[in-house]
Amino acid sequence: MQDNSMFYLTALAVLVVFAILLTGIGGFAKGGEFNRRNANRLMRWRIIAQAVAVALMMLLLWLRGR
């Protein structure tokens, strides 16, 4: 059961990264005030979320290997 919950948590983390990435790309494509105010913030959040997702993936692989 713990293995399945870790899988779902990892999948959720990947979806969060994807959503942040799409928001950033959409803001960049549209330009304007939203992009000027939020481009760097979105990039920072994406990097943090991506690091969490990779750490969860590594933990999931480690748990499944045991």
Low-confidence stretches: none
Order of helices and strands: HH
Give the overall average pLDDT.
92
Distance between the termini: 14 Å
Transmembrane segments: 6-25, 45-63
Protein name: Twin transmembrane helix small protein
Organism: Paracoccus amoyensis
Keywords: Membrane, Transmembrane, Transmembrane helix
Task: Describe this entry's structure for a reader.
With 66 residues, this protein is mainly α. It has one domain (2-65). 95% of the residues lie in helices and 0% in strands. The protein contains two helices and no strands. The two termini are 14 Å apart. The model has no long low-confidence stretch (mean pLDDT 92). It comes from Paracoccus amoyensis. Keywords: Membrane, Transmembrane, Transmembrane helix. This is Twin transmembrane helix small protein. The chain crosses the membrane at residues 6-25, 45-63. Residues 1-66 form the HIG1 domain.
Describe, in short, the structure shown:
This protein is an all-alpha fold and 66 residues long. Helices cover 95% and strands 0% of the residues.
List the helices and strands and how they pair.
Blueprint: H1 2-30, H2 32-65
Give keywords.
mainly alpha, 2 helices, elongated
